[in-house]
């Protein structure tokens, strides 16, 4: 069945009405984000902040109406509001819990701990680290899910050999795909690699929220979230709305990347998410022929920066073609070469993360934040 067009969705939304004014949400200019991807529809309605809770029935009606359209597999409608001038979402002193109506849905039931793998800038190996950390947690006997939230460059389908696959939908629930011993869900499963989506802020959270809310994750000990790179609004909002137990920050040793890592660390601190530590990726190069170790960049910077910023240093991962090759071939090195020194390095990082997850019970089980208008 053909996927509906954006105009079809707009037409459906225009048949609804705001109970206060009697006008439809399209005429009111509330439709600020709309994505239609192979039957998966995400709509962001930007509404007056003070009416957030009162408009929950309209949100539900919109979701139901869109879902009932022929060709629609899943429908997610979220309410957002323009940020009040000067508002600092999640800045210290403000609670992570908020006021608007449906935040409980953002914490997938059955998932014990959610950890973010983040980086201040792109291309530092965040996704490679996330995939290997997830596999290391599997090796430690944990039930693990990987949630690829890197909407700008989702790479988990490729890293777990699942590129080109689509999730099944059963009873209105999206089933994550089975990777090697873990579950994988990625925005990349919903779009074509050659067909990049230009995301607007509200659409991002809508799509990510759908993956948290409508995916049948089942029981997980740990969900590893591959965050979008950077420290902009998307990352901030996400760190605020997803009940993260903590974050791992990936950096390369170069000064510039470390500066970015500091920004990442500060972002999580702003929203009261504990930082489990920094991983220095592409830290040094070992010649595969002679074993000579070469410090490609000024190695050690991340460790020094971590101690200066008062957060743990989780370990150094070398620049090695085997890490890249295994990731490209769809089996992270922890699974492909479990006895290698590199796999051991990722396992040590996983152990350090587990120690913090299981040690800090309060930090590891933060109250699920309620969605707040930002
Ligand atoms: N330690 C490593 N040794 C060799 N290659 C690596 C290593 N870490 C990552 N790579 C390679 O570097 C490239 C970028 O890695 P990756 O996609 O994990 O980075 P990222 O920070 O998630 O990037 P993006 O910002 O694009 O999402 C990939 O080709 C990956 O295979």
UniProtKB/TrEMBL annotation:
| Residues engaged in binding ATP | 120-127
What stretch or stretches form a coiled coil here? none
MIP18 family-like domain residues are 6-77
Tell me the SUPFAM superfamilies matching this sequence: Fe-S cluster assembly (FSCA) domain-like, P-loop containing nucleoside triphosphate hydrolases
* Keyword Nucleotide-binding in record: yes
Question: Which first-to-last residue range defines the signal peptide?
Answer: none
Q: Name the keywords, alphabetized.
A: ATP-binding, Hydrolase, Iron, Iron-sulfur, Metal-binding, Nucleotide-binding
Q: Where is this region: Disordered?
A: 85-105
Q: Which PROSITE patterns has this protein been placed in?
A: MRP
Nucleotide-binding keyword on record: yes
| InterPro entries, A to Z | FSCA_dom_sf, MIP18-like, Mrp-like_CS, Mrp/NBP35_ATP-bd, NUBPL-like, P-loop_NTPase, YlxH/NBP35
What terms describe the molecular function in GO for this protein?
A: 4 iron, 4 sulfur cluster binding; ATP binding; ATP hydrolysis activity; ATP-dependent FeS chaperone activity; metal ion binding
Cite a single GO BP annotation.
iron-sulfur cluster assembly
Q: Which family does it belong to?
A: In the N-terminal section; belongs to the MIP18 family.
Its quaternary organisation is: Homodimer.
Functional summary from the UniProt entry: Binds and transfers iron-sulfur (Fe-S) clusters to target apoproteins. Can hydrolyze ATP.
Which protein are we looking at?
A: Iron-sulfur cluster carrier protein
């Amino acid at each position: 069945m053909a996927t509906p067009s954006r105009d079809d969705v707009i037409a459906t939304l225009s048949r609804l009405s705001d109970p206060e004014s009697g006008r439809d949400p399209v005429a009111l200019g509330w439709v600020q984000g709309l994505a239609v991807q192979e039957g998966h529809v995400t709509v962001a309605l930007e509404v007056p902040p003070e009416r957030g809770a009162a408009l929950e029935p309209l949100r539900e009606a919109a979701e139901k109406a869109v879902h009932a359209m022929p060709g629609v597999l899943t429908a997610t409608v979220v309410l957002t509001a323009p940020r009040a001038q000067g508002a600092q979402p999640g800045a210290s002193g403000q609670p992570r819990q908020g006021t608007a109506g449906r935040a409980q849905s953002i914490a997938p039931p059955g998932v014990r701990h959610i950890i973010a793998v983040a980086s201040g800038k792109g291309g530092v190996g965040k996704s490679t680290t996330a995939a290997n950390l997830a596999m290391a947690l599997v090796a430690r006997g944990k039930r693990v899910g990987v949630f690829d939230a890197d909407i700008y460059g989702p790479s988990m389908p490729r890293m777990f050999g699942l590129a080109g696959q689509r999730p099944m939908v059963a009873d209105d629930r999206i089933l994550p795909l089975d990777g090697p011993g873990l579950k994988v869900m990625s925005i990349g499963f919903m779009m074509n690699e050659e067909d990049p989506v230009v995301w607007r802020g509200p659409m991002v959270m809508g799509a990510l929220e759908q993956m948290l809310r409508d995916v049948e994750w089942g029981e997980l000990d740990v969900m590893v979230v591959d965050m979008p790179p950077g420290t902009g609004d998307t990352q901030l909002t996400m760190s605020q709305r997803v009940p993260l137990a903590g974050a791992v920050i990936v950096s390369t040793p170069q000064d510039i990347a470390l500066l970015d890592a500091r920004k990442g660390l500060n972002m999580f601190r702003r929203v009261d998410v504990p930082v489990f530590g920094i991983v220095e990726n592409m830290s040094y190069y070992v010649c595969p022929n002679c074993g000579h170790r070469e410090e490609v960049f000024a190695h050690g910077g991340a460790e020094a920066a971590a101690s200066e910023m008062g957060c743990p240093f989780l370990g150094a991962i070398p620049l090695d073609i085997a890490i890249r090759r295994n990731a490209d071939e769809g089996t992270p090195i922890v699974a492909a070469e479990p006895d290698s020194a590199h796999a051991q390095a990722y396992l040590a990082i996983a152990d350090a993360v587990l120690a913090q997850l299981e040690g800090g019970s309060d930090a590891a089980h933060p109250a699920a934040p309620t969605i707040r208008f930002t």
